[in-house]
Amino acid sequence: MFVSPLGILIHPEYGLWHSYRGGLAFAERLDLPSSPRRSSPCTSCAAKPCLTTCPVSAFSAGSYDVPACRSHIATEKGADCLSGGCLARLACPVGAAYRYRPDQADFHMRAFRRG
Ligand code: SF4
Ligand code: SF4
């Protein structure tokens, strides 16, 4: 897993389409199979559309303007973000097959808008 320019983690296969709600802690180290070494897909992504797609430029490398985003999705112009999911996130070509379904994106965006 790698940090993307959006600040959220990106997986080489699943892209930006994963999230975590908890973790497990063990007293002893588990003998797990090793995973292949991979590099960040962002390294070879020259266009970086994730940084240029947001209609209110909420993302720049290393920062996310949450108030600007929230204000936008509260307006009619932000309807696409609100019902279909973050356009900047959707612009990423990695893991496109794992994008959230529209109803799932809608659920999360409405929860985010409420704050
Ligand atoms: S669009 Fe490119 S730079 Fe942005 S998160 Fe996806 S792979 Fe990384
Ligand atoms: S949800 Fe829309 S306004 Fe908010 S960061 Fe994503 S693209 Fe920008």
Task: Explain what the structure shows.
- It is a single chain.
- The protein is α+β, with helices and mostly antiparallel strands and 115 residues long.
- The chain has one domain.
- The protein has 4 helices and 4 strands.
- It has helices at residues 66-73, 79-84, 87-90, 102-114, and strands at 2-3, 9-10, 59-60, 63-64.
- The strands form 2 sheets. It has a two-stranded antiparallel sheet with strand order 1-2. The protein has a two-stranded antiparallel sheet with strand order 3-4.
- β1 (2-3) and β2 form a beta hairpin.
- The longest helix has 13 residues, at 102-114.
- The radius of gyration is 16 Å and the shape is globular.
- The two termini are 27 Å apart.
- The mean pLDDT is 93.
- The structure holds iron/sulfur cluster (2 copies).
- The site of one iron/sulfur cluster (SF4) has 12 residues, from α1 and α3.
